[in-house]
Amino acid sequence: MIELNVHKTLQSAQGSMELHVELTVEKGQFITLYGESGAGKTSTLRMLSGLMPPDKGSITVNGTVWFDRERKTNLNPRHRNIGYVFQDYALFPNMTVSQNLEFALDRKQDKTVVEDLIATMELQQLRHRKPGTLSGGQKQRVALARALVRQPGVLLLDEPLSALDSAMRQKLQQYILEAHKKYGLTTILISHDIGEIIKLSDKVYEMQNGKIVRQGAPPDMFGLGKTSAKFRFTGEVIRIQKEDVVYVVTIRIGNDAVKVIADQSEVSHLQPGDKVAVASKAFNPVIQKI
Ligand SMILES: Nc1ncnc2c1ncn2[C@@H]1O[C@H](COP(=O)(O)OP(=O)(O)OP(=O)(O)O)[C@@H](O)[C@H]1O
């Protein structure tokens, strides 16, 4: 479990900004920080990872104090059990995929962990290639694998997919979810992509001006469940879930997402990533101010 309570005065374009974040993340949870640019999302992750010292507060992870201003505790970033993936892959260009992963090994560690990650991230065919010859999605798979070499308990993902196209994002989201489950990670993602947030996270925290202003389950946060009717729209399937005898299909339209109830015959040929049209004739449209 991550218990974070940090204060930091940051310098924004509009002057100084007081960041104060209180956050508790259960072990195995997948949460997302969401919010406008400059709200303090990256700074929050940097404080958790030890790259930026808070001015005040404390950080405790699974009962171990990583930071406590009062007690003058500030664990070295190398000793914090964290994997960090950024938008830019930060791989070593002169090393192959395998070498990039092996370089991250701790002296005491067995190489089998690298083999396991190569298999999980399906990098077998790419293991002797150098990053310059890989696509963005492939590079990000390597970066994700590298972040997991030290078998961290906590994975931090700072907009890791924002440089990739939609198809590649969908694939990488699957790899992220698989790694999160397989390695029992506690994961914190920063993302602006509502479809991605709904697909991946258990809980979302919206930040504004250095504070958490809203939090909740992604469908509630993004207004899903509100009725929509008598219109036609096109969108992209984000998720298909079986609930009792029906299926709930979550579809992204622009920057919004809606849930549509479907039966077995409608979903049998659908999968996440498919473009679909949805039309409704039975009810009048409902207008709801957001
Ligand atoms: N080391 C620092 N010292 C002081 N201020 C900083 C420092 N690092 C970042 N800032 C400022 O803190 C503010 C928040 O930045 P941060 O990168 O945390 O926001 P963000 O929510 O991640 O934004 P984005 O979505 O654009 O990445 C910015 O105005 C930034 O200039």
TrEMBL record:
Signal peptide: none annotated. SUPFAM superfamilies: P-loop containing nucleoside triphosphate hydrolases (SSF52540). The keyword 4Fe-4S does not apply. Keywords: ATP-binding, Cell membrane, Ion transport, Iron, Iron transport, Membrane, Nucleotide-binding, Transport. GO terms for molecular function: ABC-type ferric iron transporter activity; ATP binding; ATP hydrolysis activity. One of its GO terms (cellular component) is membrane. Coiled coil: none annotated. Residues 1-234 form the ABC transporter domain. This is ATP-binding cassette domain-containing protein. The lineage of its organism: Bacteria, Pseudomonadati, Bacteroidota, Flavobacteriia, Flavobacteriales.
